[in-house]
Amino acid sequence: MFECLEDFVGAWGLSRRIRHHNAPEASFEGEALFSRHSDGLLYHETGELLVEGQAAFRAERRYYWRNGSNGMIDVFFGDGREFHSIDRHAPDATHFCDPDTYNVRYRFESWPIWQAEWRVTGPKKDYLMVSTYNKM
């Protein structure tokens, strides 16, 4: 189990599987880098996304992770909007992006291997995305 935000600093191997209810499966292989940034960490992932039946393409995303209140980790989108918070003792969170709902469960019990499992539902979305991180 991680002790603090600083435990995430560095490079992580990232493997992601995306299972859509009514669409082709997808996978992502790459790296997530947590680097120090102003009052927290910049999370930057890069890699290759492969959707079944299509050519692979390069993909990336950014988030900011910051120390929150009561030992929480607050996660923000790359543009600074609030996303969700992580409680290491009850690592479930929800983000509403009307009309869709994003539910996440973080799994830290095998630290320094950890997972983020997203269940996304909405009128046009229905998928499970599981990301596994391994410290490099």
Could you say which structural class the secondary elements and strand pairing correspond to? mainly beta
Number of helices: 0
Mean pLDDT: 95
Q: Strand-and-helix sequence, N→C?
A: EEEEEEEEEE
Side-by-side strand order of the widest sheet: 6-5-4-3-2-1-10-9-8-7
The counted number of beta strands is 10
Shape: globular
What characterizes the major β-sheet? Answer: 10 strands, antiparallel
Q: Which oligomeric form is depicted?
A: single chain
How far is it from the N-terminal to the C-terminal residue, by CA? Answer: 17 Å
Q: Give the amount of beta strand, in percent.
A: over 45%
What does it look like?
The chain is an all-beta fold and 136 residues long. It is built from no helices and 10 strands. The protein has strands at 10-20, 26-37, 40-51, 57-67, 73-77, 82-86, 92-97, 100-107, 113-121, 126-135. Strand 3 and strand 4 form a beta hairpin. The chain starts with 9 loop residues before the first strand and ends with a strand.
